[in-house]
UniProtKB/TrEMBL annotation:
Catalytic activity: L-histidinol phosphate + H2O = L-histidinol + phosphate
Keywords for the protein's UniProt record, in alphabetical order: Amino-acid biosynthesis, Histidine biosynthesis, Hydrolase
Species: Anoxybacteroides voinovskiense
GO molecular function: histidinol-phosphatase activity
Lineage of source species: Bacteria, Bacillati, Bacillota, Bacilli, Bacillales
Biological processes, Gene Ontology terms: L-histidine biosynthetic process
Cellular component, GO, one term: cytoplasm
InterPro entries for the chain: Histidinol_P_phosphatase_HisJ (IPR010140), PHP_dom (IPR004013), Pol/histidinol_Pase-like (IPR016195)
Protein name according to UniProt: Histidinol-phosphatase
Transmembrane domains' residue ranges: none
Pathway it works in: Amino-acid biosynthesis; L-histidine biosynthesis; L-histidine from 5-phospho-alpha-D-ribose 1-diphosphate: step 8/9
Length: 265
């Protein structure tokens, strides 16, 4: 029972639930191993495109985040394994800044995830999972839904292939996140070939996949990231899948997991 993707009260778009609430809820659910993977501070020259600019933890909070996790890791060591981690954004155009940050912070971490949330289009960045309204603006900037989906998978492939140094995360976050609003913005062409290529690249590098349950609860998605067929393809390649609730509040722990398990029974 492991959850490898949990957020914290340090998340500016999350909840105020304490770390203790998350931990005690995880223990109650039967988890023996959890990773806190807060959104890492964004590069200093990157402008967060969300209205409240609340996509990630501030750099000024990082030391407090690490020291607080060290405290609870020790406090609960007899009850549960707690891994100190970060969810690192891979942003096209900010590869060097990301590599420098990882070089500095890597030794402090037990776990990490590499995710794509932001895409550049026509001179501006969009947060692809922020809202249907921003997704629509992104589609309009790209010129089509197809091109937006293609750009996302190109960015994920580039994230997998890019050398970010020895502390580069080995787990790729919510591989199919671009499908979060698929009920409203369906892609009229298959992305299967692109996804299979990414899986082959992940396999060749001995990386892992975040098997993310959050999409199950999203009304315009209604499936995990990635969906079942991708999971089967990953298993064929012996790619490790680490369940992640992507919880932003304590009650979201375990989200999607029962349905994901049922699909494979």
């Amino acid at each position: 029972m492991r959850d490898g993707h949990i957020h914290t009260p340090f998340c500016p778009h999350g909840s105020n639930d304490s770390l203790e609430q998350y931990i005690e809820r995880a223990i109650e659910l039967g988890y023996t191993d959890i990773s806190f993977t807060e959104h890492a501070p964004l590069p200093s020259t990157f402008i967060d495109p969300t209205p409240e600019q609340d996509s990630a933890m501030a750099m000024e909070q990082l030391d407090s985040y690490l020291s607080t996790l060290q405290r609870v890791k020790k406090q609960y060591q007899a009850d549960i394994t707690i891994r100190i981690g970060l969810e690192i954004d891979f942003i096209v155009g900010y590869e060097e800044a990301t590599a420098r940050f990882l070089e500095q912070i890597g030794p402090e971490l037990d776990d990490s995830i590499l995710s794509v949330h932001f895409l550049p289009a026509n001179g501006q960045y969009f947060c692809l999972d922020y809202s249907p309204k921003m997704f629509q603006a992104m589609v309009e900037s790209f010129g089509s839904t197809i091109r937006a989906y293609e750009a996302y998978y190109e960015a994920v492939l580039y994230a997998v292939q890019t050398d970010l140094g020895k502390y580069k995360p080995k787990r790729i976050g919510h591989l199919t996140l671009v499908h979060k609003f698929q009920k409203q913005f369906p892609c009229p062409v298959s992305m299967t070939e692109r996804i299979m290529h990414i899986l082959d690249e992940i396999n060749g590098r001995q990386y892992e996949l975040d098997y993310n349950g959050a999409g199950v609860q999203k009304p315009l998605c209604q499936e995990p990231y990635p969906p079942d067929w991708v999971v089967y393809e990953a298993l064929k390649r012996n790619i490790p899948l680490i369940y992640g609730s992507d919880a932003h509040c304590a009650r979201d722990l375990h989200q999607g997991r029962e349905q994901m398990i049922r699909n494979f029974l």
